[in-house]
From TrEMBL, chains A, B:
The modification 4-aspartylphosphate is found at D55. One of its GO terms (biological process) is phosphorelay signal transduction system. This is FixJ family two-component response regulator. Residues 6-120 form the Response regulatory domain. The keyword Transcription applies. It comes from Acetobacter lovaniensis. Keywords: DNA-binding, Phosphoprotein, Transcription, Transcription regulation, Two-component regulatory system. SMART domains: HTH_LUXR, REC. PANTHER family: DNA-BINDING TRANSCRIPTIONAL ACTIVATOR DEVR_DOSR. Residues 136-201 form the HTH luxR-type domain. GO terms for molecular function: DNA binding.
DNA sequence: ATCAAAAATATACGAAAGTATAATTGCCGT
DNA sequence: ACGGCAATTATACTTTCGTATATTTTTGAT
């Protein structure tokens, strides 16, 4: 489950960081702790599944503000907020913006561990989905411009003859390109190709 | 936007109900207010877009408990919680379970109105999606058992010959059934049929 | 049991798809 | 200008698909 993964902790309170490091070490999960969001960004992220335990209130950038900026920074880690001084709207908004948990200190250790396990699972799943989308996009990119043209019209259901007219090429050229599309996209049948392009459109 | 829709209010405090009725009447939205969840269930729901403003703490069944039971009752209304005595975990859990807002009294009128408009829009969208899925399911149901068999294998990419062998019928029968499938499903091309069955699988 | 409707099958034909071989065109670098 | 090299096109053939017509089988109702 937690083969190789990291939990990032950002909290200005060193005693909290130490406590979390101990807690997660006790269950064999690697921890990288920082006292500011800047320190976290400077260190960078490892390319392994993980999640982020984030303090709400900190000197410098708050955890709330950092959370809002994460998408723009290309950081998609699941976020678990911890706080000693939160209020209801803050917690509600955090969850509405995608945080997976919002815990108030003092919190139950097991509750946090459960949230972390959940976050790591979500990140693993996100990475799987992302990898599939990337692989699919790579296949598509291996098609020449003309082959992509043909592929688009094929999955629209046009006949080879119609595609040829649309693209101002001969029907035999369409057949050649079409065969190349099927080979390069590793599609055994036309329905396969349709499904591949549907996934491609969704993950665009 | 709010052509014909209803906001259901469940709150044991008659002054709150009156205030909400006034507020929503001022913007021309119809209100149905109840003092208990039982009263709401007894009255039943209208078949128009709407959302539910739900008090957290009430005599009898609490709003929180009712929210958890809604899916089992087949009620998919967007829920907006209002409360005077909530805490952070309660608000966080409510949102995690799908509530679209969790407001603490006293709340800003406009905040509630925005949430309600958002809830109504979501319900409209849900109804659109549901109607599409239902229409698609109706088309599929219009296929005979044999036609459904053929359709399933067609979208898997099997040849008519292979389908015939699989179903122990003649190839000509497959052709007839296949033509019926295309006609009944209103699919002009094979890619169309593939996409229809994909949607069907997702909304099953 | 019998009749009528529906489903399945047989036969036949034209259009489309897939593939192979060969010829042609267009483009790029030397 | 020239020689490759990839893309396009032409030709030919086989398989598959779609459809129409006619026949047989099955099903269901009275």
């Amino acid at each position: 489950m937690t083969d190789d993964c990291v939990v990032y902790v950002i909290d200005d309170d060193s005693s909290v960081r130490a406590a979390l490091e101990d807690l997660l070490a006790s269950v064999g999960i690697r921890v990288l702790a920082f006292d500011t969001t800047t320190a976290f960004l400077t260190h960078g992220m490892e390319d392994v599944p993980g999640c982020l335990v984030l303090d709400v209130r900190m000197p410098g950038q708050s955890g709330i503000d950092f959370h809002r900026s994460m998408a723009g920074l290309g950081i998609n880690l699941p976020v678990i907020f911890i706080t000693g001084h939160g209020d209801i709207p803050m917690g509600v908004d955090a969850i509405k913006h995608g945080a997976i948990e919002f815990l108030t200190k003092p919190f139950n250790d097991q509750t946090l561990l459960d949230a972390i396990q959940n976050g790591i699972s979500m990140d693993q799943e996100r990475r799987r989905t992302k990898a599939e989308g990337l692989a699919l996009h790579t296949l598509w990119s291996s098609l020449s411009a003309g082959e992509q043209d043909v592929a688009r019209l094929v999955v629209r259901g046009l006949l080879n003859k119609q595609i040829a007219a649309e693209l101002n090429v001969s029907e035999i050229t369409v057949k050649i390109r079409r065969a190349q599309v099927m080979r390069k996209m590793d599609a055994q049948t036309l329905p396969d190709l349709v499904r591949l392009t549907e996934k491609l459109a969704l993950s665009s």
